[in-house]
Amino acid sequence: MGSSTSHLSKELLTEYQELTFLTKQEILLAHKRFSDLLPQESRNVEDSLRVRVSTEQILTLPELKANPFRERICRVFSTAPERDSLSFEDFLDLFSVFSDAATPEIKSHYAFRIFDFDDDGTLNKEDLKQLVNCLTGEGQDTQLSTSEMKQLIENILEESDIDRDGTINLSEFQHVISRSPDFTSSFKIVL
Amino acid sequence: MASFLLRQRSTQSDIEPPESLGEELWEEEMERICSTKVPLQALPYAMMDKRLIRHLREPDGVKTSFWEQWKKKWQRVHQQFLDVSHRLMGTFGLWKTDLYEIGGLFGTGIRSYFTFLRFLLVLNLLAFLLTSSLVLLPLAWLHSPDPGPAPNTSYHCPTSREPQPDLSQIHLHLWDVFTGRALSNTYLFYGSYRMGPESDSQYSVRLAYLLSPLTCLLLCFCEIVRRMVKGLIQKQLLSKDYRPRLSSKVFVSWDFCIQSREAAIIKQHSISNEFKIELQEEQRFLQMQQQTRKQRARQLLSYVGINMFIGLLVVGGISAIYWATKFSQNYKDESLSLLLQYLSPGVISLVNTLGPLLFGFLVQMENYPPNTEINLTLFWCVVLKLSSLGMFLFSLRQQAVLCTGRSDHSSCEPHDYNQCDQCWENSVGQELYKLSIFDFFLMLAFAFLITLPRRLLVDHLSGQFWVWLGREEFLVPKNVLDIVAGQTITWMGLFYCPLLPLLSSIFIFFTFYVKKYTLLRNCKPPRRLFQASSATFFFQLVLLLGLLVASVPLLYVISSIPSSVNCGLFSNYSVPWQVVPEAVALRLSPSAQKVFHYLGSNAFWYPVLILLSLTLTVCLSQSGANKRAIKGLRRQLLWQVREKWHLVEDLSRLLQESGGSDSLGPESPSSPSSRSRSFCPGFPCPGSPRPRSFMAGSTHSQDPGK
């Protein structure tokens, strides 16, 4: 353990403040929550910056537990090669994008990546289908029928696919989002 | 430290053949990112990539100029300042945790109602601050005479008060508080403000008293319009081509702040319902397009018929209010039974409770699409609510105005309007005060005497009826209309009862907690999804209408109705507005007077009007030109994409012809390899800058992350 303190150093805090949208309080709170997820022996400062937390553990956080997109969120923000664990910096990135102060552009960029279920850089019909299924839930009575789904997806593509290539790319997505003032307030997770 | 970016690249470069083209594009992209002025926080990359970019932007070795250093230091100070102010706001932020809890449990639609309550509270507090700082403080400072009815100088009236009933002391005081009579000699009401003649003092309290309601209303107007514009979904109203209804709903409707499992399920249900309804409406719309003329005419006729019928009902309700007010005013000073005192508020509430139920029932009979049903019912509810308040005020004023300032009282109603002890502003103020109190207690009564027992009965009793009844649904529009009506009453009473905003703020404060308790314990969430932005626009629109309903009578009174002669500040003036020209003449230098005269004359306002019309024309034509440009650009984009496909097809055909066994054939637009490149480091993206290999049989599964 040595001389490790339970607080982040000042330089590190300033650096994180520069690189994310979080305030000092929020960074410290995030660090505390992250350390709570770690096993007991790695809860000091140095280890907490190195060790990664698996996705299953992250999904136990109350802020993410009820979210149908929780696995996608963890996958998008993870920088591990297998994309199955988050480091502290990934954790900070996550809450930075979902914070109050983040710009709509960065939020829409990450929303696009979260909705892109097959990670291929655009939203095709399959992605949209999975997105709608996440939104409506698993129940029999809430899921849309095949014809309704087809109609819905056709509507979406007709409204948003400007270049008519059958998929929605990032700019088209951001174009749709920019027209909805709701987006910034609904795309928010606060610790 | 090894950057994730670089690691990605190295893995990629192991697999791919030498890719000079890719390298070039990579370098270009890196250069582009490093040279933009976008702050590091706003770059959509992982933390270690941001560090790399920061290092590339300003390597430690390079000495930054003095200007850069100074700018960085300033930014750091600015950031610290923002941090501190955020923390302070956090401690003072009213109800932040409550709002967060409600949002987590019910979503942003219902939370918008509570945010609206907070907005109204702040408005009322600011109105109160304005009035007290402009009027009350100077009044106290200048040691004016104590509030009370002014000594009668011209009519030699006996100083008798209204006869007090023969009740016990405590009961008397409480009752008088509720009717406003105990407070009629305090600063709460208009009648007790007194002031010497204008020429005596430096500070014109009269001018302040006159202008503070007007300033209040003007500031509220500006703030409401600002919020309305912010919440407006742009261009949705302007052109049919822009109709991102469903797609924006799909992308935006999930509230990421929801934390409980039940709330998530409820939200999913409501989203699913919403989609189904929208799809049904579209089908219906398509069906309607194919209707015959006769059918369409019949539909239109029934639509007009139903609206006219509801309009008649509204007119009926409003006349009931008029007669009730007239009746209660006539018999005001006689027996002080509960019924008569609160007759008008009672009738208003009755009309406003029965009305929406009737409207909903009638509209449902016609079998309109759900959106039309909701909008129609809402529209008539708003009309009913605001016009009932307007009619109430109108009938009050009718009574008061008809009977003062005339020498013969024969034109008045049987009640003996003695000119001496009548201060009609006071009585109007008292009526509004009573209405305000009645509204608040009615809200409490509904919450505790109807919703709570209903919940208890439904939870503890079993039976078909109770299951069918269920808990009460928390209807956001109805609650918003109630609160807007309360605010309209406050605005109406600004002139007659200057401390009404303070009372209103206290009521709103308690309303928040009562509504929160009702929502969390006794209600079930509404079935229909209420999107926050359209909600904001709707709230602000209704509030604006309420503001208009409140300001028009006020402006009329100030400019045309003579004030009563033996109470208040304006007793010696023909109309209250007279104070302004008098103040201008008295206190300003002749040149300033000339400026004011010019500002009030036609010669000023006609050019201003012409200028405004010109600006409006320019804006409209610019917007039209923009629309045409956008259409043209969309067409161009389509052509370019098609051209790209032709080129791809030609290229693959050429490659096929020139050899190369298994190169790719013409690809459909939906295959992954043909998408536009997007530089997305941090996640494997086939669009990332490495060339598609048309030569070797490339598979698409090279992305490490797949």
Automatic annotation (TrEMBL), chain A:
Location(s), subcellular: Apical cell membrane; Cell membrane, Sarcolemma; Cell projection, Filopodium tip; Cell projection, Growth cone
PANTHER family per record: CALCIUM AND INTEGRIN BINDING FAMILY MEMBER 2, CALCIUM AND INTEGRIN-BINDING PROTEIN 1
Name this protein carries in UniProt: Calcium and integrin-binding protein 1
Residues of the EF-hand domain: 103-138, 148-183
InterPro entries: CIBP, EF-hand-dom_pair, EF_Hand_1_Ca_BS, EF_hand_dom
GO terms under biological process: angiogenesis; apoptotic process; cell adhesion; cell division; cellular response to nerve growth factor stimulus; cellular response to tumor necrosis factor; cytoplasmic microtubule organization; DNA damage response
Record's bilayer topology term: Lipid-anchor
Chief place where the protein resides: membrane
GO cellular component: apical plasma membrane; centrosome; endoplasmic reticulum; filopodium tip; growth cone; lamellipodium; nuclear body; perikaryon
Keyword tags: Angiogenesis, Apoptosis, Calcium, Cell adhesion, Cell cycle, Cell division, Cell membrane, Cell projection, Cytoplasm, Cytoskeleton, Differentiation, Lipoprotein, Magnesium, Membrane, Metal-binding, Myristate, Nucleus, Repeat, Spermatogenesis
Signal sequence range: none
Keyword presence, S-adenosyl-L-methionine: no
GO molecular function ontology, one term from the record: protein-membrane adaptor activity
Tree of life domain: Eukaryota
UniProtKB/TrEMBL annotation, chain B:
Family: Belongs to the TMC family.
Membrane topology: Multi-pass membrane protein
Pfam families in UniProt: TMC
Domain of life the protein comes from: Eukaryota
Annotated localization: Membrane
Organism for this UniProt entry: Vombatus ursinus
The protein's name: Transmembrane channel-like protein
Residue ranges crossing the lipid bilayer per the database entry: 119-141, 207-225, 300-322, 342-363, 432-452, 489-514, 535-558, 604-625
Main subcellular localisation: membrane
Protein encoded by which gene: TMC8
